[in-house]
């Protein structure tokens, strides 16, 4: 287990009292754990990546599940590329591609001579420009909680152009996670898990700084712009009162928490929280559900009246109609 060097940080106040809408979800059991993200096909089927490296295709009704490939790593975010291939953010291997013959290839494994430690999520423009996050240079996927406890802000947001040039757009970020482009592709949004925030960056202005546009009532994970134009946010878990209490305290307390057996460390709540914002940061949908077969949503996709959820903490996908 990697040791941590906690940095003091005072969490912002929680958002105002909320009255989320309770919804029902349908759950589809999978032959493996940790379907972190989802990607919707034109035929309604869905792709997802599992903890063991497999990429699955799940039929729209959930009755047929096929294995397409194995990345040999830990696939997280999935996106369509302009040529119809799939971009895979593999936490351990970097940016990969899955072609139409189900072959895996490496697109980008290191930046400035340094292997990516935690390639997490991406979005892609029509010309093939990729915007993506590397959440931490300190910890990998198996120790993601250590980064939240340490709060050392080593994450970055990048752009890769079709000619292979990689530019760091934002650095010193606290676990940057999900990524989504605005409808006009002039603004980049991302979720920052460790600061409970949704941020945006003006891509048309040189030297622009990130601006927080929304305070999330929990740990935001993947985000995606839906067919409805909204920025959908998977809230992996509500804010943890113990973590919020410890963050501004002497670092030794968080070191003690990290040294505890896994069974005693903070856990994600057994609820499902999903939000959707407009591009100005106004909350449009605030949704909550509970289901014995699904919790800790980490991926969300809205398309044509249906929302799909992935979860790093279960062996299932979940769906519900767009409100």
UniProtKB/TrEMBL annotation:
Residues 1-21 are annotated as: Disordered. It holds the Pfam family SGL. Residues 51-237 form the SMP-30/Gluconolactonase/LRE-like region domain. It comes from the Bacteria. One of its GO terms (molecular function) is hydrolase activity. This is SMP-30/gluconolaconase/LRE-like protein. It comes from Kribbella pratensis.
